Each structure stands twice: as structure tokens, then as C-alpha cells.
Prior knowledge:
Number of strands: 11
CATH superfamily of the largest domain: Type I PLP-dependent aspartate aminotransferase-like (Major domain)
Bound molecules: pyridoxal-5'-phosphate
Amino acid sequence: MFDIDNLLRKNILALTPYSSARDEFKGKAEIFLDANENSFGSPLNTLSFFGEGQGERFNRYPDPMQLELKEKISQIKGVPSENIFLGNGSDEAIDILYRAFCNPGKDSVILTPPTYGMYEVSANINDVFVKRVPLTTNFQLDVEAIANVVNENTKLIFLCSPNNPTGNSLDREDIEMILNNFDGIVVVDEAYINYSRQRSFIPDLVDYPNLVVLQTLSKAWGLAGLRIGMAFASADIISVFNKVKPPYNISEATQKIAFKALDNIQQINSWIKEAVVEREKLSAALKQIPLILEIFPSDANFLLVKVKEPKWVYDYLLGRGIVVRDRSKVLLCDGCLRITVGTPQENLQLIDDLRNYKA
Length: 359
Ligand SMILES: Cc1ncc(COP(=O)(O)O)c(C=O)c1O
């Protein structure tokens, strides 16, 4: 049985979180003398980005709970705001999960390599023991092997779907099997879900109190520089995130810009369609190049590609001004490069350069 109080570290269960000036005051006021800000303003010209007359003033602390931004995300995702946490990138959400649920030097996490590298780095930072259960050769979960390594100190399982760096989606039934049988937290990282035909696990939150879904504004939403990651979970789990996070973890500038950007959903949807079309075109063109040994099916905005002489190809492309990711030393990714889908012009240049590669 999933029991969040039992799962949490005792110090987090007992924690009284920091209460900021902006938490304590709610209501309307004209004069803010509660937070030791600079009451005079910010040393910025009144620029027009946020609208005429609004200027760029950042002398006030931002909303610690990002309520307006969450309300907009809530409408887009169809999830109540109380089920949303916003972090300084998904990486902040990943780190908070370890800090809240895993006792350093005692508890463990299950990871399924090859997968997103930060799960392991963050575990190492937090002194959490990593149990690795590799994906099968067709990049799917080995559910039985996962079940075999769970013990009472296993607090988290990270599953990435579509998976980075392989690009494929994990079988839904496998994820459901784990959600149904594991009493710790199951994190389903959907950073690339917009490029996939798979259904998100967000609607399943009502059925699984142990589910955390991660998404991000860094990929399809085109806002990697802003650093906004989203965690969707039960209100109980979200209140744990809110307890542990730094009080003002999303800056005022970030909140304002993201709020504006989220209005442009049509632009995002058209870029997603274009990226998917480009992905398939790129895949077809790469297939014609003898240097390319294998192209793995992708549900994401990148392709995992097996090549002859990966290191030389990597260096050659770099010499041509194109940087890809060398994943050739990663488990199950022998000889592989990971290539992000670029603009049509960038993809044409990549294909052209690869055609001209001489061993
Ligand atoms: C699977 C996956 N999750 C999370 C992230 C990080 O996202 P963010 O920019 O929100 O920290 C990445 C970035 O590459 C990723 O590949």
C-alpha cells in the first residue's frame, strides 16, 4: 500500500517550511514594506517587452507559488493547479524527489539505462544508491527484473517515455504494471511526449497516488533558456515539492515570459507537426547513406543512429560546424550518435555533409 507519510524522510515529514513575506501577506496593499526589497525600482529602462507603461521592474519578489502561470498550465493540461509543481527545469523536480523521499546512504532508486543521465547524477549528489535494470535489446522495460530488485529501501523508480537517448516510447502496460505493484513513487518523464502518438499519463493521476509525471517547457515549447519544468502529481505529493523547494524558485521574468508564450499554442502545435515530418524525412534520407548502419524508431525530436566510426563521424561533423551527441559509449548504444531534428535547412546540410564523409 502506498503511504506517503511512511515513504517520506522523517525530517521532511516533520519540516516546517520557510514562510516568505509573500506567503504571509495575501490581499491588496499599496505599500510593501515587508520584504526588504528596493522600494525605488529596478535600474532598467522602461522597455516595451511586457507592454507599454509596464516597464521592467523586478524589484519585488515573485509569486512563490506561480499561481497565474499554473492556472494557465492547468487549462492547457486539464489538471487542477493544486496538482502542478513548477521547477527550475525538470532537473529541480528530480532533485527534490530524491531529497524528499530518499535517506542518503540508505535508500535506493531504480533506473533503466540507457536513459536520461540526470537521474543518476542527482542520485549520486544525494547519496542515493542506484539499482540499474537495463532496458531490453529493443529498449523496453524488463518488468520482472525490476520487480526482483525492489526492496523496502527502494523509494523511487524513474521511467522515461519517450526515452532519451533511444527515442522510443515505453510500453504502456509495463508502466501500468509497475504503478500497480510498486509502493514507492513511479516517475514517468514525458519531456518528449509532444512528439509522440502515445497518451500522456497525466489523466492517470486520479488512479495512481504514487505517480509523478514530469514534463517541461524546454523541448516542444521552445523555452529551454527559461528553465521551467513541470511535475504533475497528487495534491499530497505536490505539497511535498512546495515544502522542500526554495521559496522563490521561478523568477518574475521567467513567470511573465512563460505566461505570454503559453498563449502561442498554435505556433507550438505547428512546430511539433513540422518537427515530426522532418524527423521522418531525415530518417528516410539517412537510410540511403551507407555510413549509417541503423536508425532506431523515434517518438521524440531526435534520432538515435548507429554509424561506422562514430567518433570520427562526430569529429567530422564538428569540423563542418554541426554538433551532435556522441552516445557510442552508452550501454546498448554501441556506435550510436543522437541527432536532434533541426530546421529543414539544417537537416539538409547534415545529410549533405554525411553523404560527403570519407572514411
Ligand atoms: C528525458 C529528459 N527529462 C528532462 C530533461 C531536462 O529538462 P529541463 O530542461 O526541464 O530540466 C531532459 C533534457 O534533455 C530530458 O531529456
